[in-house]
UniProtKB/TrEMBL annotation:
Protein's UniProt name: GNAT family N-acetyltransferase
N-acetyltransferase domain segment(s): 29-190
CDD domains named in the record: NAT_SF
Signal peptide span: none
Coiled-coil regions, chain positions: none
Top-level division of the source organism's lineage: Bacteria
One Pfam family hit: Acetyltransf_1
Length: 190
């Protein structure tokens, strides 16, 4: 098995005024919170968005593990729909002391390049900033952060920075190279 160097960048916003929203795309694009925790739907989004960019860390999760994660207080999944079809998602996970991570964000490949990503990221970051308004008992958000890596889409870093996220850490680590799993084997050309 071959190893590859993977660079991971961590970015943050430290005030709601850091957010630089993107314009909404033209057409029938809506963003809706998946209010009923659904391991099936969340795994579908994860595999469909990350299948071509080697998201593999959750593929081995059991149904119960997905359920435990989604049932945690404050975990939210916001889904972008283009004419009623799921186009991508953003998953928010609260931490301690008002820190919220945009744990996952991305678009299904067929919906990339259509100006949906900037809008979805803007919307997701805004929902991270007002997360405590929907979850009594959560601390008011003081910081929103995320990470991206050299395996992610070529426009990911630019999108994050254009939305007002600032780089605060960079790490390079060796990882075993894995084939892109796709949402199912053979879904993406080599």
């Amino acid at each position: 098995m071959t190893n590859i160097a993977v660079t991971t960048w961590s970015l943050e916003q430290t005030a709601p005024t850091d957010l630089l929203p993107a314009a909404a795309p033209e057409g029938d694009v809506r963003i809706v919170r998946a209010e009923v925790p659904s391991p099936e739907f969340s795994r579908y989004l994860y595999a469909s968005v990350g299948g071509d960019i080697r998201w593999t860390d959750r593929l081995g999760w059991s149904y119960a593990r997905w359920g435990e994660h989604l049932e945690r207080t404050g975990v939210e999944t916001w889904v972008a729909y283009d004419h009623g079809t799921p186009a991508g998602y953003v998953e928010l996970t609260p931490g301690d002391d008002g820190v919220v991570e945009i744990e996952y964000f991305g678009l299904i490949p067929a919906f990339r390049g259509r100006r949906i990503g900037g809008h979805l990221l803007s919307y997701g970051a805004a929902r991270a900033w007002d997360l405590a308004d929907r979850w009594p008992g959560l601390a008011t958000t003081k910081r929103v952060w995320l990470h991206t890596c050299s395996k992610d889409g070529e426009f990911a870093m630019d999108n994050y920075q254009r939305r007002g996220f600032r780089l605060f850490d960079t790490k390079v680590e060796e990882e075993a190279e894995v084939a892109a799993p796709g949402p199912w084997p053979g879904a993406f050309p080599a």
